[in-house]
Every structure is written in C-alpha cells, then in structure tokens.
C-alpha cells in the first residue's frame, strides 16, 4: 500500500494526514494557522505539520491551499487577506525541495471535492458541486467525473460572485460578494453589526446563542439561510448537478438550519453535507498525489 501526505491550509487551521492508497487515515496532525502573522509564520506552521508526518516511506505530498492556485506550477496566484502574503508563493517548489518528494498543490476546495468524490458524500456521483462555508466561501465543480479547474484556475470562485449588487465591501475589492453573507466570518460580523457592539467573535458563538433563543441570532441565521438558498438556486440553474455538497465549519451547526434551508430552496435537489467532515481537503489532496493529479 502506498502512503502519502494530504494537507489542508486554511485561514484558521492547517490539517495534515498520512493517508494510505486504500483510504486509511494512518496519522493525523492539526495546528492553528495564525494567518495574521503572515507568510513566513504560515510556512513555519506548515513545516511543523509536515515534519511531524513525513517519513522515508512517504511517496508524495498533496497540498490543498486556500486561494487561486496554478495547479501546473504549484504557485499561489492569488490569496485574500485570509492568508496574508500568500499571493505569489510557489508551494510546490518549496515543499518538493525541502522534503525531496513529488508534490502537488491544488485549491483547497478543489481538493475537498476530490476527497468527497473518493470517500465522502459524493461517492459514485459524476456531476458534483461543492460549496465550503468557513472563514471564506469556496466552490468546486466536478462534471462528468472530471475536476473543472478553469482556464485561469479560478473556476467555481463562488465566494466572489456577487449576490447583492452594491452590497457589503469584500476583501477582494468588489461589493456584495457571496462571502460577505454566508461565510462564518460574515455570520458573526453581521451579529455584531446588528447588536452595535462586538459581542461575538465566531459563527459558533452565534449558533450557541441561537440555541438559547437569542433574537439577534435568529435574525442572522434567517438572513444566512435566505442568502445561501438564493446561491444554491442560482447554481442549480447554472450547472444542474446531481448533488450539491456543503462543507466547512459553518455546517457543524447544520442541525439548526438544515430543514429551513431545504424549505427555502423550493426545488427537488440532492443536497448533502460533506461526509468527511473537516477532512475532505486532506483526503482529496492525498488522492490527487496518489493519482498524480489526474482527476
Ligand atoms: Zn469578494
């Protein structure tokens, strides 16, 4: 059995796993990204995870990173302020030289959809769309069994499609992006905006308050679901997927809003949460290196 490493670099956490070609998770490591400390610090954190997982029998490293990634060169073409200083870094070069093993770098959500297609909720499906709701909002598409990267490696940049023209300022420079309404960050910021004070600092806090019947959180979750269902409706009309997979930290609270979301979508659509929970990208990055990038 081959053994490879799969890595997930997000704005909040770096996750890594040693994965067998049979899909077994052999070893696992997690650390905070502390992204606000910048590029060198994020790299240091990444090396920390890899040093822990790497061994002589590892046959490759697959990395899923937030941002727009040139899959061919392994360069981060563009990353938002969720990963400051990440734009321009060539991860493939750095990691393959440091660990002297073949390395593949892919957008984190592209890797996640590959993971879900391999071992998760989208197993045996061929037309899949994935949306991740975390620090930011990401998207990925598999059509007819093939990962769609786009001609500029920016397909399915759902987070930066505009949901409300003239709406909230986004860190990408546009106004009204999806990310400003349905990301974990957007959820807690909206709470503080309505409250007129910084009472919460995570979406998790908002969902905790929701369970206590807190009025503001009810309003925030209602807005969140309406925005998400509008997005899903648009996507369905655009791609007509067999299944839509929702992933990312926000879906940990799905029990609170899943039925409401389904009632809002108002159409017959196969929609599911990620089956690999927060490990979709780790598994997918591993699958990509196992397949030498052909998915
Ligand atoms: Zn944007």
What is the strand arrangement across the widest sheet? 3-2-1-4-7
Q: Give the biggest sheet.
A: 5 strands, mixed
Gross morphology is: globular
CATH fold annotation of the largest domain? Nucleotidyltransferase, domain 5
CATH architecture of the largest domain: 2-Layer Sandwich
Provide a compact summary of the structure.
This protein has helices at residues 39-53, 91-99, 108-119, 179-182, 184-195, 203-211, 215-239, 254-265, 280-290, and strands at 3-9, 13-20, 25-32, 58-65, 68-70, 75-78, 103-107, 128-133, 137-143, 146-147, 243-247, 271-273. The chain is of the alpha/beta class and 295 residues long. The strands form 3 sheets. It has a 5-stranded mixed beta sheet. It has a 5-stranded mixed beta sheet with strand order 10-9-8-11-12, sandwiched between helices. Strands 5-6 form a two-stranded antiparallel sheet.
Features of the shown structure:
295 residues; alpha/beta; Nucleotidyltransferase, domain 5; 2 domains; 5-stranded mixed β-sheet; 22% strand; binds zinc ion; glucokinase activity; Glucokinase
């Amino acid at each position: 059995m081959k053994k490879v490493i799969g890595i997930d670099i997000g704005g909040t956490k770096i996750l890594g796993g040693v994965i067998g070609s049979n899909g077994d998770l052999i070893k696992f490591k997690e650390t905070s990204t502390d992204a606000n400390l910048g590029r060198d610090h994020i790299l240091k954190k990444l090396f920390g995870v890899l040093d822990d997982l790497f061994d002589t029998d590892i046959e490759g490293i697959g990395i899923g990173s937030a941002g727009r990634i040139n899959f061919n060169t392994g360069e981060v073409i563009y990353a938002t302020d969720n990963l400051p200083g990440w734009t321009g870094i060539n991860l493939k070069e750095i990691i393959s030289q440091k660990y002297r093993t073949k390395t593949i770098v892919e957008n984190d959500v592209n890797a996640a959809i590959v993971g879900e297609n391999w071992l998760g909720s989208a197993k045996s499906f061929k037309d899949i769309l994935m949306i991740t709701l975390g620090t930011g909002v990401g998207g990925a598409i598999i059509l007819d069994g093939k990962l769609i990267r786009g001609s500029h490696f920016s397909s399915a940049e759902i987070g930066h499609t505009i949901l409300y023209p003239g709406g909230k300022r986004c860190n990408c420079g546009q106004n009204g992006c999806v990310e400003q309404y349905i990301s974990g960050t957007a959820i807690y910021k909206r709470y503080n905006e309505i409250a007129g004070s910084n009472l919460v600092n995570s979406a998790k806090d908002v969902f905790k308050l929701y369970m206590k019947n807190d009025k503001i959180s009810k309003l925030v979750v209602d807005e969140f679901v309406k925005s998400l269902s509008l997005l899903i409706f648009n996507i369905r009309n655009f791609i007509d997927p067999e299944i839509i997979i929702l992933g990312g930290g926000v879906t940990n609270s799905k029990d609170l809003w899943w039925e409401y979301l389904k009632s809002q979508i108002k159409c017959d659509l196969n929609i599911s949460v990620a089956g690999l929970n927060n490990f979709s990208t780790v598994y997918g990055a591993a699958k990509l290196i196992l397949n030498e990038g052909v998915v």
